[in-house]
From TrEMBL:
Residues 1-25 form the signal peptide. GO terms for cellular component: membrane; periplasmic space. Residues 71-256 form the Peptidase M48 domain. Keywords: Hydrolase, Metal-binding, Metalloprotease, Periplasm, Protease, Signal, Zinc. The keyword NADP does not apply. This is Putative beta-barrel assembly-enhancing protease. Binds 1 zinc ion per subunit. It is an enzyme of class 3 (hydrolase). The keyword Protease applies. Its cofactor is Zn(2+). It comes from Photobacterium aquae.
């Protein structure tokens, strides 16, 4: 489904990552509970407040990928790892940012971001999972909070400056980054040493999580080694290697730890390769000719397993460049082979919509929903298709339920606002747009939208009561966000 898409925060996190305790574990399956005592600096509840504030800032300022299929994939991968991680104290949210630079980062409140460029470097799902598992470990070990605690022990003034810089960054990333660099300049060598220690700890715990989750633990040292070789003499390494240094000692340590686990035969992940092809076709910043050349080069040495995923990517490029017949020729056999594959269903729906075959698309989606009635990708596709077909009133119940279930997904609110506008419900349109503003931390605009919505409906009606209650909640959220900056 083609919808809208939307040193940044990850440099802030990289600059502040701090101290850890020595890592010792003779039994890879029995990891000690270390390095999580940071409550004197930040409570879990306060970390979650900071994380929510960062997430709203990121939505407003960075190109977060809103593609439902890719969001569904990265969330599933992340939560598979979290289910096998130790020391989980917060909910986790995984999302992707459209950026060709190699990077992934984690921040307060269980938020983990993955750059789309990571898929250009990771050659298997296990390699991708190794990076995500590493970032999960940063969160469960509370490395950022521990860094603050260490700074507080060394210098209360430095701690105060760090906290002030952090709060400033929530409101103004560029100004906050300048303040952080000034604050940490005096103890740069200590920060580097702490970061290396944290990285080894996150590697060790990440490898254990990989093993429990059924991934190939050798993927981590293999991926790290390949990156180190490629960028050993680079004058400008990618962001991931700036915030996650890869000295030989770290690679050797990860290899040694991975060798403590029995070898596993990890099967082919079709979803990973389909997601990778979708990213290269739409989110790698390549024009259609360059993308097609990439897929053709890969197809020359493709295995039978990966060939379908590569042809799927080519079909997307053809659709996006208006070559519908070529797209149909590639997509039809894929869909015939796997009629319930949601990647294929989504892209077939795109092709139908471009060709104005609305009835065919709706029928396909309704059939698919019979076996998976709560699937987010299919629900959004159906609502989108109905709106493209002019059936706005039929899309509204689907979107109303979807936004209730997924209040943090801007796709649902954006489409609901469009649907309400089309049927002439100005108050409901304003309310949906208010939620979009709130997701970006634009509290005054969100509150003003709800005030206007409340003024448009009947006095003392249920709608007015609902809008007024939401205004009260948003004002509390605004106050809470403001308190983080003081």
């Amino acid at each position: 489904m083609t919808l809208f898409a939307k040193a940044p925060a990850y440099f802030l996190i990289g600059a502040l990552l701090g101290t850890s305790l020595p890592a010792t574990a003779s039994d890879p399956a029995q990891l000690p509970e270390i390095g999580t005592a940071a409550a004197s600096t930040l409570t879990i509840e306060k970390e979650m407040e900071y994380g929510d504030a960062y997430m709203r800032m990121i939505r407003a300022s960075m190109p977060v990928i809103s593609d439902p299929l890719l969001s569904d994939y990265i969330q599933d991968l992340g939560h598979r790892l979290v289910a096998n991680a130790n020391g989980v104290k917060t909910p986790f949210t995984f999302f992707m940012i459209q950026n060709r630079a190699l990077n992934a980062f984690a921040f307060f409140g269980g938020h983990v971001a993955v750059h789309s460029g990571l898929f250009l470097y990771a050659k298997s799902e296990s390699e991708l999972a190794s990076v995500v598992a590493h970032e999960i470990a940063h969160v469960t070990q509370r490395h950022l909070a521990r860094s603050m605690e260490d700074q507080a022990r060394k210098s209360p003034a430095t701690m105060a400056a760090l906290i002030g810089s952090l709060m400033l960054a929530i409101a103004s990333p560029e100004a906050g980054m300048a303040a952080i660099h000034a604050t940490t300049a005096a103890s740069a060598q200590g920060q580097i040493n702490y970061t290396r220690s944290n990285e080894k700890e996150a590697d060790r715990i990440g490898i254990a999580t990989l093993a429990k989750s059924g991934f190939d633990v050798q993927a981590m040292p293999r991926f790290f080694g390949r990156l180190a070789d490629e960028y050993r003499y680079a004058s400008t390494p990618p962001p991931m290697l700036l915030t996650h240094p890869l000295p030989e000692s770290r690679i050797a340590d990860s290899r040694s730890r991975a060798n403590q686990y029995p070898k596993t035969n990890v099967g082919y992940s079709e979803r990973y390769h389909l997601a990778r092809s979708r990213i290269i076709a739409r989110f790698a910043g390549l024009d259609s000719d360059a993308a097609l050349n990439w897929f053709d080069r890969q197809l020359k040495r493709a295995t039978p397993q990966t060939r379908d995923a590569l042809n799927y990517g080519k079909a997307i490029v053809y659709i996006d460049s208006g070559k519908y017949q070529q797209a149909q020729a590639l997509l039809s056999p894929l869909l015939a082979k796997e009629p319930n594959n949601r990647f294929y269903i989504d892209t077939a729906t795109d092709l139908d919509l471009y060709q104005k075959q609305y009835g065919r698309a709706i029928k396909r989606l309704e059939n698919a929903l019979k076996s998976a009635p709560s699937n987010n990708v299919l629900r959004l596709n159906l609502a989108h298709t109905m709106q493209e077909a002019g059936k706005y009133s039929q899309s509204i119940p689907i979107l109303t339920r979807y936004t209730h279930d997924n209040p943090d997904d801007p796709n649902g609110w954006h489409m609901l606002a469009q649907g309400q506008a089309a049927v002439g419900r100005r108050d409901a349109e304003l309310a949906a747009r208010a939620e979009l503003f709130a997701l970006n931390g634009a509290w005054p605009k969100a509150i003003q939208n709800y005030i206007q919505a409340s003024q448009l409906v009947e006095i003392n009606s249920l709608d007015q009561a609902r809008y007024d209650a939401r205004i009260d909640q948003l004002r509390l959220d605004q106050q809470r966000a403001a308190s983080l900056q003081r």
